[in-house]
Design goal:
6 helices, about 15% helix, 2 domains, disordered N terminus, mainly beta, Elongation Factor Tu (Ef-tu), domain 3
């Protein structure tokens, strides 16, 4: 996106294998460009106790968070259920920014504020003070960002803080966090729907309102992608999260799927062998460039092994499992 000038055309190339006899054409999408992310917001924690406070509330270590790092983290209930997920950065020692879905931001901010008590920290909704953009492909290099940075690396580009995200089908991606009045990153105009599809394909769930309190962190694979620190001190739900990890009680995982019909977060997932009870939930979904749908579903591990998964009902949209772009912790 370029201010005051002509925007470049959407950089999207779709290649289809016309020889695919079952009409489920193989689709390869090249992501290149920049898109604004109006569905995300920013909670700012500011004050000498900002890091200590969040350290005691979230699943990640914020005390040791450096300026060159970002953290995936979750806020849980006392029962270990995730009520918000964040990408957190620490641009200054006494300031932390938490990026989360806007639809859960007000309730999340209210809940965190309940526990401030005497801590020297001020929490606020700073969404209007920041411009958030998603960058993909060659747009990273065009803005001076190292496309080879590992996920979780935070760098500076002008006035922006730039977080390296998990790639989508091998394409590098980044989150651009900058003051609202600053210049937008340079690059072709990327459709927001395509970015949201790349988010699903990256395998990292961003929690939204339909699935609040539906999962413990490991049901979203958060322990496998750096979203849980098992060495830090206590936080709400920590005992449940730790017990799930170390006592072998975890029976659900998140998997990447595709379907020919529309999918939505919060939708129940059924297996052919059990028409009565759902075996999981759609955690995040997006329209795919080929007209199908991609989703991240959290389901019973036993149901995955049994197969025959459908969304909405036992005779609903068939779900095809695809490989996750990362290894689960138990497989590492």
């Amino acid at each position: 996106m370029e201010r005051g000038g002509h925007r470049k055309q959407v950089a999207l190339r779709v290649e289809r294998n016309e020889a695919d006899h079952d009409n489920s054409a193989m689709t390869s999408v090249v992501l290149n460009g920049v898109t604004a992310l109006p569905h995300l917001g920013v909670i700012r924690a500011e004050g000498p106790d900002a890091a200590d406070f969040l350290h005691g509330q979230l699943t990640q270590d914020f005390v040791l968070l450096g300026a060159s790092e970002a953290r995936l983290a979750a806020l849980c209930t006392a029962k270990g259920r995730v009520i918000a997920s964040f990408i957190g950065i620490r641009p200054q020692p006494d300031r932390i920014l938490l990026v989360c879905s806007r639809d859960i931001l007000p309730a999340t901010l209210k809940r965190l504020s309940m526990f401030v008590l005497r801590a020297k920290v001020k929490l606020s909704d700073a969404s209007e003070e920041f411009a958030l953009h998603g960058l993909a492909g060659t747009a990273l290099a065009a803005n001076g960002i190292d496309a080879g940075s590992a996920p979780g690396r935070c760098s500076v580009a002008g006035q922006a803080q730039v977080v390296a995200l998990y790639p989508s089908d091998g394409v590098p991606r980044a989150l651009w966090i900058a003051p609202a009045a600053s210049a937008a990153p340079q690059g072709a105009d990327l459709d927001l729907a395509l970015w949201q599809w790349s988010e699903v394909r990256s395998g990292i769930v961003t929690l939204t309102q339909p699935v609040v309190e539906a999962f413990v962190p490991q049901m979203l694979n958060y322990e496998s992608v750096g979203g849980v620190n098992f060495k830090k001190g206590c936080y709400p739900g920590q005992e449940v999260v730790a017990r799930s990890q170390f006592r072998g009680t975890l029976k659900r995982r998140t998997y990447l799927v595709k379907a020919d019909a529309a999918l939505a977060a919060g939708q129940e997932v059924f297996a052919a062998h059990n028409a009565e009870q759902p075996v999981g939930t759609v955690a995040q979904a997006a329209l795919a460039p080929d007209g199908g749908w991609a989703a991240l579903i959290s389901i019973q591990i036993a149901a995955l092994e049994a197969g025959g998964l459908h969304a909405g009902a036992v005779d609903g949209a068939a779900l095809t499992i695809e490989p996750l772009p990362y290894a689960l912790l138990e497989d590492i």
